[in-house]
Amino acid sequence: MTDLTELWIYLSQGPLLWLTATVVAYGIGDTLFVLSGRSPWVNPVLIAVVLLSVALIATGTPYETFFGGAQFVHFLLGPATVALALPLYANLSLVRSAALPMLAALLAGSLVAMLSAIAVGWALGLRGEVLLSLVPKSATSPVALGVAEVIGGIPSLTAALVIMTGITGAVIVTPLFNALGLTDWRARGFAVGVAAHGIGTARAFQVNDTAGAFSGIGMGLNALLTAILAPLVANWLF
Amino acid sequence: MIWSIAILLGCQLAGEIVTRFLGLPLPGPVLGMALLLGLLVAIPRLYRLVAPTGHTILANLSLLFVPAGVGVVANLDVVSEHGLALLTAVVVSTVLALVAGVLSFRAVARLMERQE
């Protein structure tokens, strides 16, 4: 029998172990999501993150080692963002006719996301770099990390907050908008893209294709607007 | 298949090069998305080539956020100290941003309908 410790040392040095773990953890989350009848409360990303976090802590594996394997999945965020042009193109006439409503929703959603996060965080005693890490949380990961660095937040904390925001948006968007009696898929999709970036967009695609397309645009535009506004907001307030 | 991957990666690469070169405050892939949209408008035939691969990636979009999400482990000290405040700020501001976005979209859309 091979020595288990030796096997562990061998496996923990390569990318295969944690890459497999990432895919399996998400597979478990996605299966539970399907079994629940696609309930918005059963979020595959949240389940996968919890399972993997517990595994990392239990085995004493540093995040850097995990990311050595998981980076192959992480890398695909780039091509996936480019691919958002496809639903955008398929819905182009619908998008053109809604330019003004989108502009209004973008400005309102983006500013409210930043200012209300600062206000609530401040009221609950957050200060300094932890508070600043909250500012770009509604933008998609690569932008949010860059913005956090520029305004003096902690990029790795922002990364976690971005995912937390996305999961919150994905979980809450369907019950919230149903409760408000909103039936316009363009408005629903766009708002969730602005507030909850790619995870919200993934959720929107599960519900309705038009909502997904508008969500992708909302995410892209808010990435741009957050990159411009967050440094101004941070400068103005601090 | 292979050309659709080449087109997606090529657009991302071009986006990265342009944003770095011009110092734009924009991630390369977002410019890459705009570039692919421009290509599709110019050459509609490309849609049928890129769509199968693109839709496969988009159908599994949530998976791609898992590695960054596990980053919470790298910040356990900050998260355990300020976890409740951070979670409250995230949840409250996400709800407010969703409502602000969807209501302003609807208000302007209705205003436009009335003028037509």
Tell me briefly what this model is.
Chain A has helices at residues 4-13, 16-35, 44-59, 63-75, 77-83, 85-90, 92-96, 99-123, 128-134, 141-151, 155-179, 185-207, 209-237. By secondary structure, chain A is an all-alpha fold. Chain A folds into two domains: 1-75, no CATH class; 77-238, no CATH class.
Q: Can you tell me about this structure?
A:
The complex is a heterodimer of chains A (238) and B (116). Chain A has two domains: 1-75, no CATH class; 77-238, no CATH class. Helices cover 83% and strands 0% of the residues of chain A. Chain A is built from 13 helices and no strands. The radius of gyration of chain A is 19 Å and the shape is globular. Chain B is mostly helical. Chain B has helices at residues 2-22, 28-42, 46-59, 66-69, 76-115. Chain B is extended. In chain B, 46% of the residues are buried. Classes of the chains: A mainly alpha (238), B mainly alpha (116). Chains A and B meet through helix 2, helix 3, helix 4, helix 5 and helix 6 of A and helix 1, helix 2, helix 3, helix 4 and helix 5 of B.
Number of strands of chain B: 0
Low-pLDDT segments, ≥5 res of chain A: none
What count of structural domains of chain A?
A: 2
**Helix content range of chain B:** over 70%
The radius of gyration over CA of chain A amounts to: 19 Å
List keywords for this structure.
A: 238 residues; mainly alpha; 13 helices; globular; B: 116 residues
List the helices and strands and how they pair.
The complex is a heterodimer of chains A (238) and B (116).
Chain A: H1 4-13, H2 16-35, H3 44-59, H4 63-75, H5 77-83, H6 85-90, H7 92-96, H8 99-123, H9 128-134, H10 141-151, H11 155-179, H12 185-207, H13 209-237
Chain B: H1 2-22, H2 28-42, H3 46-59, H4 66-69, H5 76-115
